[in-house]
């Protein structure tokens, strides 16, 4: 049995973290090959702000190893159920305003206090997080979304309807 087939049989259940779509056997092999060969990229993509890196790495990997396969890096937003209140989610003007109000931008509690003082329209923006993902043959593949949104409790899932372009 070839190595990719063995890898597929051992690890195909791991793919569910990266897509909700039913994939063809060939698409699963591409993803498993990427997971196997580019695990450092996926690990890096778990960190906030690194979704674009792993998405770009996947495009390059597919173009090099599976020429002719339709793959894109998509820039958009991910819709969460809970507000994302990391320091990176605040505009520089908001961080400056926090300082004027004697709030510490590095304190999660102070960021939450500041967020609660914002108008509702501004609060709604914290439920849409700038994000990168991939499309493989028209199907959403996201190597960082599960880690950045589900594990952090911002969202219970990574359904396709959460991806906004």
Give the SSE order as H and E letters: HHHHEHHHEEHE
Q: Strand-residue fraction? A: 5-15%
Major beta sheet, strand line-up = 3-2-1-4
Rg is: 18 Å
Q: What number of domains?
A: 1
Q: What would you say this structure looks like, in words?
A:
This protein is α+β, with helices and mostly antiparallel strands and 165 residues long. The chain has 8 helices and 4 strands. The protein has one domain (3-82, 126-164). α1 (3-11) packs across α2 (25-37) and α3 runs antiparallel to α4 (51-65). The mean pLDDT is 90. It starts with a helix and ends with a strand. A 4-stranded antiparallel sheet has the order 3-2-1-4.
Brief account:
The protein is an alpha+beta fold.
How do the strands and helices of this protein lay out in sequence?
Blueprint (H helix, E strand, L loop, with lengths): L2 H9 L13 H13 L1 H7 L5 H15 L5 E9 L12 H9 L7 H10 L2 H5 L3 E9 L2 E3 L3 H6 L12 E2 L1
Antiparallel strand pairs: 1-2, 1-4, 2-3
Descriptors for this entry?
14% strand, 165 residues, four-stranded antiparallel beta sheet, alpha+beta, elongated, single chain
């Amino acid at each position: 049995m070839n190595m990719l087939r063995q890898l597929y049989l051992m690890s195909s259940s791991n793919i569910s973290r990266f897509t909700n779509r039913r994939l063809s056997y060939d698409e699963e092999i591409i993803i498993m090959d990427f997971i196997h060969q580019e695990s450092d990229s996926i690990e890096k993509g778990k960190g906030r702000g690194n979704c674009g890196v792993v998405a770009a790495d996947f495009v390059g990997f597919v173009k090099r190893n599976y020429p002719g396969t339709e793959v894109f890096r998509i820039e958009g937003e991910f819709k969460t159920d809970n507000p994302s209140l990391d320091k990176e989610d605040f505009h520089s003007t908001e961080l400056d305003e926090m300082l004027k109000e004697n709030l510490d931008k590095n304190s999660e509690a102070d960021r939450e206090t500041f967020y609660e003082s914002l108008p509702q329209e501004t609060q709604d923006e914290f439920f849409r997080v700038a994000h990168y993902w991939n499309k493989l043959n028209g199907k959403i593949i996201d190597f960082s979304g599960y880690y950045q949104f589900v594990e952090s409790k911002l969202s219970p899932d990574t359904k396709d309807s959460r991806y906004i372009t």
